[in-house]
Amino acid sequence: CLLWSVSGIVTRQLQEAAGFEAVFWRSFFAALAVGGWLLFERGRRLTADIRAMGRVGLVSGVLWSVMLTCFMFALLLTTVAKAMVMLAITPLMAAILSWVILGERVPGRTWGAIAVGGAGIVWMVSDALGGDDRYPHSAWGLLVASALPLASALNLVFIKQAQARVDMMPALLIGATISSVVMLPFAVPFSGTTTDIAWLAFLGAFQIALPGLMFIRAARHLPPGEAGLLILLEVVFAPLWVWVGAGERPTDATLAGGGIVLAALVFNELLGALRRPSAPTLPS
Predict the structure, then answer these.
(1) Tens of pLDDT, residues 218-240
(2) What is the CB neighbour count within 10 angstroms for residue 281?
(3) Within its chain, how far is the Cα of 102 from the centroid?
């Protein structure tokens, strides 16, 4: 998740590549990196593994493509901090969807965190609607970013539900491929510099492929809500890197709204940790 957090600072280094082209190159290199690793690891078995995922794998791949596409567009349209705060509600969304789809109980503390976190989001969104000289389309960026927590949470639920039967790692390959193919007609003619393409290749390999494969493997052993909490590392560090490296200081409303969201999430998990029964001590 720390690797995920470098997306904002790297995106701010781009000179000419923007919009559709930036999304295309990042997804293209992610597909190359994921496909290369899976081929190295599995060889001819990769085709069988993709077929074994079935419809669930295809749905997960589509959700990955939505996440890859919307996330990059959100970073180009609004500040990194605002995009990250929208992403921060993924754990709460995952808890709700795991209740609806998997039948897992959602405790009262989580409903309270949802209410408080929602207030923080409203505060932040009201600031974006007021306009920003650097990002005049910030409100649109937040709208695009709002697709991230829903797609991420749904994907976590599908991964948790399916990985007891099949390996879902090839779904990331499907998602990156879909994203790059859909973006290609809108990306040409290319205008990005060699430096831009190098930065986007770095994002594809080390900000998408490597942490994505590791996250899918970890999600097999965690409830969707807890897996979603790992995303909070990205939410905390991404605005920090951009603030320090690119001078993009979050607005007061973003800091306040984001602080409310993160506080609600942390409080929710602390209460959960306190209420979990401790493991029995074995007699010595």
Answers:
(1) 766 666 555 655 666 666 677 77
(2) 6
(3) 21
